[in-house]
Amino acid sequence: MKNKLQYNSKVSHILFILIIGIMLLNGAYTLHSITSEDQQSHTRTLLVSKSNEILNDINLLNATLGTCSSNNETCSSAAIQLLVEELNLEIARFQSIVSQEKSLASLTGTLGFDLLQLHIKEYKQTLDTNKLATSIEEASNTSIAIINSLLANYSDSNTREDTQTIYKVVAINALLLCVFILFYFRNARLIKHIEVERQRAHATFKTISNNLKTIDQEKVKERISNITTTSIEKNIYAKLLTSYEQLEGQKSQTDLYQRLYNLLGYEIRGITNTIQGGVKLLVKDSDENGALLAKEIISATRTLENLADNFNRISNIDSSNTEKTINFYNLVSELIVLGGTKSKQHSKHIECFVENTIPQQMHGNQTGLFWILLLQISNRISASPYSNVLLHVGCSGSQQVDKLTITFTLYFYDEDYETVDHVEGLDWDSASNKDITNTELSNNLLNGIKNYQAMLHTIEKAEKIAISFDVHTSHYTPLSNRLAGKTILLCGTANIHLDILQKILISEGAKVVIANTANDIFMMMKDLNANDGIFLTDHIKGITLDSFCKTLKARLSARNIKLMMSMSNSVDIDDIYNHVDYIFYHPFTPTDFIEHIVKTLESVGQEEEKLASSFLIVEDDRVQQIILNKILSGFDFQCQGVDDGEKAVSLIKEQDFDIIFMDCIMPNMGGIDATLLIRQYEKENGLPPTTIIGATALKSNKEHKRCIDAGMDYVISKPYKNEEIYSVIKKYMAIRKVG
Questions:
Q1: Partners of 490 in the beta sheet?
Q2: What is the CATH number of domain 607-737?
Q3: Per-residue confidence at 459, pLDDT binned at 50, 70, 90?
Q4: Backbone angles phi, psi at 138, to 5 degrees
């Protein structure tokens, strides 16, 4: 088939070239004919015209001579000589033209004109008019015959040439038509043959396409072995079989990796559950500092648990789905927590500044974006030789009007810069740049997120990573002015941490006053109003934080001015939490920092807080319920009691409580089942977990572990004791003050 197609194609090309050649020949001949005819026609027209003029001159000369002879008048020799000269001149011009069109003149002859010229020559010698008249009359008849013959030949020549031209054009066009017909039939056969082959190939591919809907690897092997399968089909099935084998190998490897990922994630979750349960069992015998340390351990295990969940989800990620929603505030908060942990592991100090203009939600896959950002940030924190890290998260308009450009910028340096603007204003324009985008990973994980890029910029004594990507926001309502009307007195060592605090508070509408020393605080606090606040950092020169906070809080309580503190390490907390209204660990996360400041500023005083605290007692034994109620009332706490776990669950859905004292063993619904339902309700509705303190008469560790596994925070033993109850509440108060 291939050879036949090649042969027909070659012949068709030759015929096509012949057609073009004949058409060009026809055009050239036509152009030549038109040009030649124009020249010949002009010459012949002149020849005929001169013949007519000679004929007229002869007639005029004959008439003049005849007049002179009949009247016996003496004619003017001058007039006759003028006519003779004019006739002689016309004959000379005629002979000149004849030399250009010899074919026409040769058919006629010019002898008559030669005799006429001889008679004119004799007349010039003798000036004999009578003899001239006799000879002219004889020659004129011959000349008239010559001219008439010339005109006839002129007409015949034109007719003959036109006929020849027509024959030539018809012959050329006939040849062109023959070649074209031959070309058409040749190509018609070729087109028909190609169409048959195309239909055959289409039928083959259609058959293969239909078979692919139900075919598997074994059926592919059968098709290859079948003698009815064409060579084209066998080639296709062979390629398909190879693809099947490669796909099966990749699938087996992927399944293995996925099982390993899931196993690793589940093992991490099991370990974190064990750690959390063990810590909760041990903390019941510790003091407030132990409770705070326990909270930090539990917070770390929850972060690890979230990391394990993300690890499991990434193995099952559906990268083709771009309609998932990213909770960007939560994602940034997780990255800040993990970035802070990574920095501590490498003895680095990290600060984070998150603009309040970033979107709350956007389209994309949160797990994929989380992991690629975590890998990029974590790897650079580990690799960078500098001791200070600044993370700046912001957004700006994209080149596409319906999108935003999100930026994560990590700065690494050793100098003690005072402001964020100072770090960002370094000579980054002269930096050496390197593209560190993981293109393969971003293409696989970031469908729905466009133009992801990571650039490393290096200058002397500093470097930065600039990560940017475009997103389509699903909920973009920047949070701002939540602190409008509030005044915050900010005190600490002048550094980037203080600058970030100032920027965040101002962006939320607060009036910020800077106090450089402890004495400045006492001088400036007189200008503060109720529900304003003082915010201290853990770097204030010349003071002991514990005693300073105790003295300061004593002066603030009566005016309902709140005292807050930023800590970088829980080891340094000591008993400070007893003298402040709230403690923040930095770097701050955007999900709850401002929210906790607002709640702290708007909260009541410590004594009023006790009265405002609401406790729920879930106890089926009426006597035990009265005893616990009396103990709590003795500490000026408000209490409410129910005698069944089901009632407790219903009441939780209608009312908020600070602490729930839950009897573990009750008729109908016990405390363990009730705790499980309460935790499920809180998780489904995104509510913060309420502190649940279990109470049981059983003292075995197994029973206590069952309560902790159900979701209780602490377990106390019956009968209730004043000191134990107060210790538990004191632990709760301390934990509630620490972010």
A1: 514, 535
A2: 3.40.50.2300
A3: very high
A4: -65, -45
